[in-house]
Amino acid sequence: MFGKRRQKKQDRSQNQSPRQTKTRLTFEQLMEKCGASKDFVSFTKSDKHPFTISYYKSMVNPDLVHKDLIPYLTRYSSLSLKELSREIPVENIEHTSDVQTIMDSLLTGSVIVQSRPGKSDCLLIPAATTEKRQISVPETEFSVVGPKEAFTETLEVNINMVRKRLPIPELHVKEVTVGKLSKTRVVILYIDGIVNMENVNTLKQRISAIEYDHILDSSYILQMISDNQYSPFPQLINTERPDRVAAVLSEGKVAVLVDGSPSALTGPTTLVEFFSAFEDYFLSWHIASVFRMIRLFSVLFSVLSTPLYVAVLTFHYEMIPTDLLGTLIASRSGIPFPPIVEAIILELAIELLREAGARLPSKVGQTIGIVGGICIGTAAVQAGLTSNVLLIIVALAALASFTTPVYQMSNTIRLIRFPFLIFAQFWGLLGVAICSAFVLGHMLRLTSLGRPFLAPLFPLRMTDLKDALFRLPFNRQSLRPLQMRPEDPVRFNSQRGLQKNDIEE
Predict the structure, then answer these.
(1) Can you give the pLDDT at residue 187?
(2) More exposed terminus of the chain, fewer Cβ within 10 Å: N or C?
(3) Higher pLDDT, 374 or 35
């Protein structure tokens, strides 16, 4: 009996979805609902041929309404709506009686014009206000040399900044609307003839399948369309630089821009790209390659330095050189805690200083970070809570984590240090090796839009190593990254790229 009741409820819920149970609004109900808002304006011009104008004054440009629309409406009020749409000097005017279309246009900054009050057919005249922030300097991806432009929160401006760097008709823009409440515009950019359309279709399908009520930033999209949403590693690059977006599009990748977000998503991506600053391409290839190797070494040092300290002092103190042993004994004399406790205390203190500096105003945050770090570190050593050797190691590890060019990967490095500490406390160097194997195995299974995350290291692609761990000269990079499977893998003729056509005297 109870099973039959449960089955009936399930059948009823399947046959009547929440969207189907909602009754469709009529035009009068829509006007009544909109009229409950203080910023909704609706008035009738009572001449020989009256017409009604309705709009949200917070969404439209008042100069356009009062200087351009109303004079034309007054002059041609005797015309029908279709004839009137040809006389008003505004693009994309729509004549419709569909209530859903009217509501969507009204909420995006359009003006509704009715020939008579109460009639459902009307003109939808775009008059949205264009408030926007000025283009500024990149903050999280600042570079000493190179362009100094960053994305803004306006979608059209961001697309313009990309098209300015790629003025070709093959640059395609596809738009999708997501978010039941926010109705956020999301665009996908790619270069036709270069990109692998499988990547474009995968990205379009994942974005279209998003079921969420509001999308406020590209970070929402990043979390929802990732191949593995439970992984701490970001599988798409979040960048605020239009020059970087233009560069990856020319490699055969795909970019995503979100209205209201000052950053773009690019993919498919690989692990080595998170340690490649875009400034590397503005420097000579020798210097850029050295800087990349320094960043990779810094990441390994940031993750492994403190766990190795805990493992050696807990299980493998016989590995400490004799000259260094006296220094460690002197620094740890009088400390009542084991190495793992003092390591966690210092790591948490560093994280507290980071969060405090990030949440406070910029000038105050810098002061808190410097003064707080000096005061807390000195007081902890003098109070006998930690050793000065570990304090130096933790401080260097924190500095090393800041060398990561992409902010999302920097947060991941901060997070995975703690599992390494726990494994080092329980099993020493064996625990560090086990945790490293877990992390490496996870990254081997990880993909970005279906492409291997560790490429070109695994699977090994020798051609793509020209711009991976190090960067060769531009005339040596005649092919696009093969792991992206581009339709046109050739950038330029390799033989011509190696020639120097100097004038012979």
Answers:
(1) 95
(2) C
(3) 35
Show the tokens assigned to 67. 């200087």
Q: If you write DSSP's letter for every residue of 184-213 in order, what string do you get?
A: EEEEEEEETTTS-HHHHHHHHHHHHT---S
d(CA 104, CA 106): 5
Cβ-based neighbours of 162, under 8 Å, separated by 6 or more: 171, 189, 242, 245, 246, 249, 255, 257
Domain boundaries, the chain: 26-126, 155-269, 281-452
Residue tagged 């893998």 (tokens) = 489
CA 268 → CA 12, 198, 451, distances in Å?
42, 11, 7
DSSP string, 395-428: HHHHHHHTT-SSHHHHHHHHHHHHHHHHHHHHHH
Q: What does each C-alpha distance from 210 to 179, 203, 254 come to in angstroms?
A: 8, 11, 18
For the record, the structure tokens of 21 come out as: 């149970």
Strands (E), 16-109: 40-45, 51-56, 94-96
Express each pLDDT in 160-173 by its tens digit: 999 999 999 999 99
Model-level pTM greater than 0.70? Answer: yes
